[in-house]
């Protein structure tokens, strides 16, 4: 027993002491979850998230300690034709009188007419913490709605950061609730189809949910070392459900397969631990390595995602090696109850004359081209995937702007009318300056000249009638000027206006002032600087992930060729996913089909995050399939028969796991925001390509073509052969009839 792998020893102890293992797991999950909630979440600050020159501008503004209250606006426009100035003025006066009596309103300004007379704007300053303004804005919206009822001849609506934030929170909240409500039943339904039994289908969901709960608590504790962002929890749920279900699928299918051969429950668990359990450990380690690559990005958002993902994968692996064997041992053959009659007959493990799993008839037919003509099949399939990946060479990266938010809410419709009537309230560049206090007057004069020069350039919006608004800190060391552009934040002209400011106007006006420090920020700068940050960090992250994954695969399979082919296949899969994203989202042909408005680019953070997630999750399938192929080789099968055995014997579990992932990821594609749609489509398409074309066509044709060369390794690796499987499969000519 002492010489058996650690996965087997852990599984055997859990199977022999099931109640202890289950109790220990329950205590572990509870302690993690409760302890995390007790410690509280340490959220990342704006300083933690500062990237590039835009980040420096944000830090300079923060240093000024400005009073920056939340601001709302009552916008009065015509319902058609010219605006009735008298009715608009009366509505504005009524709104001002009502809003002054509303709790949470600090000040109501004077009505401001649009230059073309198409609108009247009443500014409102809210009291209290700006961060919670969205939670307190409803009384203001109610007062504005009352004014609208009193003046039906004009359109009276409220728009501003808090009201847009409230509308967006409501929309996204409904989206995520729908996604959560759909994901569990979809996952459970797919697993019922995969297993044909309710208990067997419920166990992976139970393990995945408990892993997510434990990881949520651990990530909250970890946030005191690496600050968390608001994207951490959704990603833990996404990754945790994916790997938790996958690992359970691998393990349970192998345990059922061994029981179908007539083995006792304990022996079946042991063999599942030695084979599928080993594959789970290797694939989990590969996912952790991929996620750890995000730490090299030097970005708190990616760092928090990395920590959360690493924790949930580690917990899921631990659960699959401990509590899962305990559950299977305790349930015994009850894991296959209650059975769904038709599905059970289709999915129940079947064995051939030699005790090997008998595959569905479909897979031998699909594999025939790869096994009979591997070179031709490989060239055609790789050529198609490279053609799909080619559009990725033209990938553009941008942050979504206000124009990319859903237009289904009145707040966003009002925002469009606001920016049309008052261009300076739309996209703004922020010129942030820090200089000695004695230079404050000189800085102010330079910023005034800068605003005047910008106003004469068509790339910028005209200045307001009362001149440029320059904020100066109480200590006179920090000055801030907003320079507006009339174009959307992702419009190329907005980017050119940013370049004009950074390369020409700002240096020309501010250079030469002693002790000065300046930077240009704002939404356009955030987008451009973050995109450049991703481009700079992507090679470093990719290199780290590729090198370490290669080493893990070499040590696991004792083969340099298998490791190298693993890397190449995963790169091919990721490239095809990138190309598909560009095809779908940088054009407009799929807008009606998927319900989005193209932003002409891919969301800036997506390529880096997508790469590590896909690379990690793809290894789940790859390790599992190649492990089964190696079992065939060790049993003395010829290479082609071993490839056939490995693909067909793992086809059911890989297909089931892929369908679960594709189903869950596709739900994210139904969400309202463009970044979630791109994430959902990118992940679902990549997993589908990986589990079908890559594993079903490219991998078998490549390994058949290479033959015995698949297992080549330097002598120092060959001197440490891995132990043979507990019960290797006998060669089975009837498995896949290949002439």
From TrEMBL:
<feature type="transmembrane region" description="Helical">
    <location>
        <begin position="567"/>
        <end position="585"/>
    </location>
</feature>
<feature type="transmembrane region" description="Helical">
    <location>
        <begin position="232"/>
        <end position="252"/>
    </location>
</feature>
<feature type="domain" description="Membrane transport protein MMPL">
    <location>
        <begin position="405"/>
        <end position="722"/>
    </location>
</feature>
<feature type="transmembrane region" description="Helical">
    <location>
        <begin position="181"/>
        <end position="199"/>
    </location>
</feature>
<keyword id="KW-0812">Transmembrane</keyword>
<feature type="transmembrane region" description="Helical">
    <location>
        <begin position="680"/>
        <end position="698"/>
    </location>
</feature>
<dbReference type="InterPro" id="IPR050545">
    <property type="entry name" value="Mycobact_MmpL"/>
</dbReference>
<feature type="domain" description="Membrane transport protein MMPL">
    <location>
        <begin position="66"/>
        <end position="362"/>
    </location>
</feature>
<keyword id="KW-0472">Membrane</keyword>
<feature type="transmembrane region" description="Helical">
    <location>
        <begin position="371"/>
        <end position="393"/>
    </location>
</feature>
<feature type="transmembrane region" description="Helical">
    <location>
        <begin position="538"/>
        <end position="555"/>
    </location>
</feature>
<feature type="transmembrane region" description="Helical">
    <location>
        <begin position="206"/>
        <end position="226"/>
    </location>
</feature>
<keyword id="KW-1133">Transmembrane helix</keyword>
<dbReference type="InterPro" id="IPR004869">
    <property type="entry name" value="MMPL_dom"/>
</dbReference>
<protein>
    <submittedName>
        <fullName>MMPL family transporter</fullName>
    </submittedName>
</protein>
<feature type="transmembrane region" description="Helical">
    <location>
        <begin position="605"/>
        <end position="624"/>
    </location>
</feature>
<dbReference type="GO" id="GO:0005886">
    <property type="term" value="C:plasma membrane"/>
</dbReference>
<feature type="transmembrane region" description="Helical">
    <location>
        <begin position="279"/>
        <end position="298"/>
    </location>
</feature>
<feature type="transmembrane region" description="Helical">
    <location>
        <begin position="304"/>
        <end position="329"/>
    </location>
</feature>
<dbReference type="Pfam" id="PF03176">
    <property type="entry name" value="MMPL"/>
</dbReference>
<keyword id="KW-1003">Cell membrane</keyword>
<feature type="transmembrane region" description="Helical">
    <location>
        <begin position="645"/>
        <end position="668"/>
    </location>
</feature>
């Amino acid at each position: 027993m002492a010489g058996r792998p650690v996965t087997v020893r852990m599984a055997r102890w859990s199977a022999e002491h099931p109640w202890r293992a289950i109790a220990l797991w329950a205590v572990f999950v509870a302690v993690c979850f409760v302890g995390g909630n007790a410690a509280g979440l340490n959220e990342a600050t704006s300083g933690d998230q500062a990237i590039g020159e835009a980040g420096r501008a944000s830090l300079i503004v923060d240093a000024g300690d400005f009073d920056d209250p939340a601001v709302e606006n009552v916008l009065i426009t015509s319902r058609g034709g010219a605006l009735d100035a008298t009715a608009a003025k009366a509505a504005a006066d009524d709104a001002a009188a009502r809003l002054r009596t509303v709790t949470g309103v600090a000040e109501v300004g004077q009505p401001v007419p649009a230059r073309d007379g198409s609108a009247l704007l009443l500014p409102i300053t809210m009291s209290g913490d700006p961060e919670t303004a969205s939670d307190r804005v409803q009384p203001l919206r109610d007062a504005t709605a009352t004014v609208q009822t009193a003046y039906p001849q004009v359109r009276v609506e409220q728009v501003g950061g808090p009201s847009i934030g409230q509308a967006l929170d409501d929309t996204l909240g409904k989206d995520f609730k729908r996604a959560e409500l759909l994901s569990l039943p979809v996952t459970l339904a797919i697993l019922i189809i995969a297993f044909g039994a309710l208990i067997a289908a419920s166990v992976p969901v139970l393990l995945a949910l408990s892993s997510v709960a434990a990881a949520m608590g651990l990530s909250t504790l970890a946030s005191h070392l690496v600050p968390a962002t608001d994207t951490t929890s959704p990603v833990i749920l996404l990754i945790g459900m994916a790997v938790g279900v996958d690992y359970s699928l691998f393990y349970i299918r192998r345990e059922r397969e061994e029981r179908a051969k007539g083995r006792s429950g304990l022996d079946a668990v042991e063999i599942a631990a030695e084979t599928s359990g080993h594959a789970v450990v290797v694939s989990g380690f590969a996912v952790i390595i991929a996620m750890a690559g995000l730490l090299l990005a030097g970005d708190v958002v990616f760092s928090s995602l990395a920590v959360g993902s690493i924790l949930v994968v580690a917990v899921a692996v631990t659960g699959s090696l401990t509590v899962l064997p305990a559950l299977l041992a305790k349930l015994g053959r009850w894991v296959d109850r209650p059975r769904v009659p038709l599905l059970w007959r289709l999915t129940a493990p079947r064995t051939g004359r030699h005790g090997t799993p008998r595959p569905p008839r479909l897979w031998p037919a699909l594999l025939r081209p790869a096994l009979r003509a591997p070179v031709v099949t490989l060239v055609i399939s790789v050529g198609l995937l490279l053609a799909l990946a080619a559009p990725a060479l033209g990938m553009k990266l941008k942050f979504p702007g206000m124009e990319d938010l859903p237009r289904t809410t009145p707040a966003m419709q009002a925002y469009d009318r606001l920016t049309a009537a008052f261009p300076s309230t739309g996209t703004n560049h922020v010129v942030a300056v820090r200089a000695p206090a004695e230079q404050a007057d000189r800085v102010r004069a330079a910023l005034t000249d800068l605003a005047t020069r910008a106003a004469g350039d068509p790339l910028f919006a005209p200045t307001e009638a009362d001149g440029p608004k320059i904020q100066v800190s109480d200590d006179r060391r920090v000055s801030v000027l907003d320079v507006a552009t009339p174009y959307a934040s992702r419009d190329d002209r907005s980017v050119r206006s940013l370049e004009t400011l950074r390369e020409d106007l700002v240096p020309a006006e501010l250079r030469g002032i002693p002790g000065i420090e300046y930077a240009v920020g704002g939404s356009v700068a955030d987008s451009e600087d973050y995109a450049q940050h991703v481009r700079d960090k992507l090679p470093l992250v990719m290199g780290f992930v590729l090198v370490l994954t290669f080493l893990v695969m070499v040590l696991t399979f004792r083969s340099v060729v298998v490791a190298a082919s693993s890397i190449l296949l995963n790169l091919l899969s990721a490239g095809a996913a990138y190309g598909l994203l560009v095809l779908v989202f940088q054009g407009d042909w799929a807008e009606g089909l998927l319900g989005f408005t193209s932003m002409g680019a891919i969301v800036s953070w997506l390529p880096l995050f997508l790469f590590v997630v896909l690379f990690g999750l793809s290894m789940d399938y790859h390790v599992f399939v190649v492990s089964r192929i190696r079992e065939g080789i060790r049993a003395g099968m010829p290479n082609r028969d071993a490839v056939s055995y490995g693909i067909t014997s793992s086809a059911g579990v890989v297909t089931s796991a892929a369908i679960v992932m594709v189903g869950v990821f596709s739900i994210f594609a139904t969400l309202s925001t463009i970044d979630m749609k791109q994430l959902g489509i990118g992940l679902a398409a990549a997993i589908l390509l990986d589990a079908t074309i890559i594993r079903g066509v490219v991998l078998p044709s490549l390994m058949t073509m290479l033959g015995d060369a698949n297992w080549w390794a330097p002598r120092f690796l060959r001197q440490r052969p891995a132990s043979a499987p507990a019960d290797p499969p006998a060669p089975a000519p009837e498995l896949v009839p290949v002439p």
